[in-house]
Amino acid sequence: MSDAFAPSDRYRQGMATRRAVLGDNHVDRAQTASTDFDRPFQELITEAAWGHVWSRPTWTKRERSIVTIALLAALGQDEEVAMHVRATANTGASRDDICEALLHVAIYAGVPAANHAIKIVKHVFAEMDAGEAA
User: Which domains does the chain have, with CATH numbers?
Assistant: First the structure.
């Protein structure tokens, strides 16, 4: 972390939530790969996305996972879709949940977006089934 950065309570909560959802290996890799250039971004997403939004008690991690996958699929964020599908091992979102989310994507964001996301999800499921996902 940058010298000027003092972790807030929200950052610490965000890091705990981020690790619970994405896993220690993923977060450790992201932190190791960060540089002075992108470290402020890593701090921002840890505090804002993970510490504020993902840590809210109103929705479960499963519910947030389903919504996040649908949004990322609708936006065409392929790598993020794959990452969050892998994270379902930690959030409790099922394959049926993901299927339902992608049906919503097809109707509300377009069939091509859902079709592309389905290809990504099937590939990730195959990796997970083979024990390749970290």
Answer: 9-53 (no CATH), 61-129 (1.20.1290.10)
